[in-house]
Specification:
Shape: elongated
Radius of gyration: 15 Å
Order of helices and strands: EEEH
Number of helices: 1
Structural class: alpha+beta
Strand order of the largest sheet: 1-2-3
Largest sheet: 3 strands, antiparallel
Length: 54
């Protein structure tokens, strides 16, 4: 999953984080990047599914 951080076009002071098709808005770039980093770390920490061996 790609997580995109960028300014909101209609507002110079707001930022959006887009994980997939959803968007979460933030007051500033620092908050947006902190949220994106936290989400990326959570995705990396997910355990892998065991492979079934038949």
């Amino acid at each position: 999953m790609h997580i995109i951080v960028r300014p909101i076009a209609s507002s110079r002071e707001r930022w959006a984080v887009r994980p997939g098709r959803f968007a979460v808005s933030f007051r500033n770039e620092r908050e947006a990047r902190r949220f994106a980093s936290r989400q990326e770390n959570r995705l990396k920490a997910l355990p892998s599914w065991p492979r079934s061996e038949h």
